[in-house]
């Protein structure tokens, strides 16, 4: 599992670390003397960067792009969804739903597991 977000690393990194997710990329807030300046450090994670990150992460773990799954909800996810082996629109805007291979319109991300062929029993077993 990897995460690429147009959000901010300072917000998502603690959660990702708690979950043991090691591959992630997001925007980084610029600070000066401990105060957020309103600027960004490093490259901006936009639509193109999300798609490139999917390619980079797949390569890093030795997986073909056709074996990847991308989940997104907005226009900045369209290139990533198109590049993935399976593109899933999650509670997405109509244009994203139209472009994706599949769509989930429930507020539960675990619904994606069932699209991947993982049953409720598999999930419950993993939780034990």
As a percent range, the share of helical residues equals 25-40%
Query: What is the level 1 CATH name of the domain at 66-128?
Result: Alpha Beta
Overall mean pLDDT = 94
CATH architecture of the domain at 66-128: 3-Layer(aba) Sandwich
Tally of strands: 6
Q: Determine Rg (CA atoms, Å).
A: 16 Å
Tell me, what's the shape? Answer: globular
CATH homologous superfamily descriptor of the domain at 66-128: HAD superfamily/HAD-like
What fraction strand?
25-35%
Largest beta-sheet details:
3 strands, mixed
Describe the 3D structure.
This protein is α/β, with parallel strands linked by helices and 128 residues long. The protein has a domain of 63 residues: 3-Layer(aba) Sandwich (Rossmann fold). The strands form two sheets. It has a three-stranded mixed sheet with strand order 1-2-3.
Which descriptors apply to this entry?
single chain; three-stranded mixed β-sheet; 6 strands
């Amino acid at each position: 599992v990897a995460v690429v977000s147009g959000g901010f690393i300072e917000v998502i990194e603690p959660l990702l670390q708690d979950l043991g997710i090691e591959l992630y990329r997001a925007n980084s807030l610029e600070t000066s003397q401990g105060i957020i300046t309103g600027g960004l450090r490093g490259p901006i994670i936009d639509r193109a960067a999300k798609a490139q990150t999917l390619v980079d992460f797949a390569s890093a773990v030795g997986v073909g792009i056709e074996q990847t799954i991308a989940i997104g909800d907005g226009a900045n996810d369209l290139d990533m969804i198109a590049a993935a082996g399976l593109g899933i629109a999650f509670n997405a805007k109509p244009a994203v739903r139209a472009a994706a291979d599949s769509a989930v319109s429930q507020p539960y991300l675990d619904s994606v597991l069932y699209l991947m062929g993982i049953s409720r029993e598999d999930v419950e077993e993993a939780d034990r």
